[in-house]
Structures are given as structure tokens and as C-alpha cells.
Amino acid sequence: MFPSMDKKTKSIIAIVLGVILGVVVWNFLREDKSTQLPIPNEISRTETGIISIEKPASFEGVEMVTYESPYGYEITYPNTWNLKDKTNVFYKKVLSAVDIEPMEVAPYRDIDYLMLISVEEGFLDDLEEQINSGEQAVRNIRNMSELEPVILNGSMGLRKILRSPSAYYFFEKNGRLYGINFFYDPSLKISEQEALWVLSTFKITER
Questions:
Q1: Which CATH class is domain 40-204?
Q2: Residues facing residue 178 across a β-bridge
């Protein structure tokens, strides 16, 4: 191959070529890995978005209700809004499901709530299996790479932005998976800040 070179020079060239080949292969494998589904527990805490919404001036003086679920979470909303139990319309794995909506909901809306909160036995790692099986709660999520990390009142979870500010949220604690389907629409006759503030009061409790 290199007839005019001595053995030592040939060895050095072989080592250099080997190092270059190794770097090329390593970069290829690293790029290929990035296309795989991320593991939620490995998400960097430094990339996490924290949800914090200032209470709207329109809510000053408005009586609020805090719903304390026996399934380990609470959420606060104006006492003129509705909270409905929707557990019976979900698949059997769901322990609890409630929706929250303003008193007046436009009749032509495809979705008749502002947010739907569900609780089931499970973990964030179970989401991949749910996505692959086409469960209702994650029907618009094609793969785990569409989810981004988020923190809400100290609980770390995952979120998929739909048409901002609408999004899916998923949190985990004590072997339970908490899902929030949040769908804001101006036809609800509330402001985006009002809707987001109610969402921001969601808190997983210790019970």
C-alpha cells in the first residue's frame, strides 16, 4: 500500500486512520440514537419549562373553589364554573376523570370542556406503550419525541403543545399517571390568562 514508507510510519498512519474511522462511526451512532424514543426519566432538568401564571385581575374578588380529589391532586377554579365526573366514559384503566369548564360553553364546540383531568395506575414510562396502542388520552401523539419536559407546582412531567396554548400534560407520582387535556378556545368566553391560571393551580398532593 505504501511501498516507500517504513514499518513505523505505516503503523502511525494506520492508527490515525483508525481514530478517524472511530470518530465517524461514533458520530453516526449518536445521530441515529437521537431519532429513537427518549426515556422520560433521562430528560435534563435544565431543559424543563416551569409553568407559573399570574392571577388575572378579572379574578380578583371572585370566589374560588378548590377541588381536592381523593386520587391525589387539587385544582382551583371560579365557583361559577362546572366540574363534572367523566370517569364512566373512559377505558377501564382510568381511576378517575373530571372535566372543568366555564358555565357557558359554546354549543358548536367539538370539545365541551376547558380541561379534562384523568388519573390511572401507571408511570411516565408507560406512555410509549399507550402511544403504540392508540389509547384515547394520547391519540394525537405519534411518538415520545413530541413530548417536552415541564414542571407544574413542583411536579415534573411531559407536555405536548397542540395549538398553543392547548396541550396534553402528563405527570407521575406514587405509581399513578395524571393526564390533563387542556383545550383553550376564545369561544369559551374567558381569557387565555384566566384559562392558564386555572391550569397552573393543578397540584399533585401527598395523599
A1: alpha beta
A2: 119, 171
Residue 197 predicted with pLDDT over 90: yes
The pLDDT tens digits of the residues spanning 28-86 come to 444 433 333 333 333 333 345 678 889 999 999 999 999 999 999 999 999 999 999 98
Per the listing, cell 372535566 goes with 99
Whether omega before 165 lies within 30 degrees of 0, making that bond cis, reads yes
> Mean pLDDT over residues 187-202, rounded?
91
Cell representation of residue 133: 396502542
Instruction: Compute the chain's Rg from CA coordinates.
Output: 24
Which has the higher per-residue pLDDT, 93 or 192?
Answer: 192
Give, in degrees to the nearest 5, the angle at Cα 74 between 71 and 77: 140
Residues ≥6 apart with Cβ < 8 Å to 102:
80, 81, 82, 114, 188, 189, 190
Are 155 and 173 within 8 A, CB to CB? Answer: yes
Distance CA 76, CA 202 (A): 7
Domain ranges of the chain: 1-35, 40-204
Q: Which residues contact 206 (CB under 8 A, 6 or more apart)?
A: 72
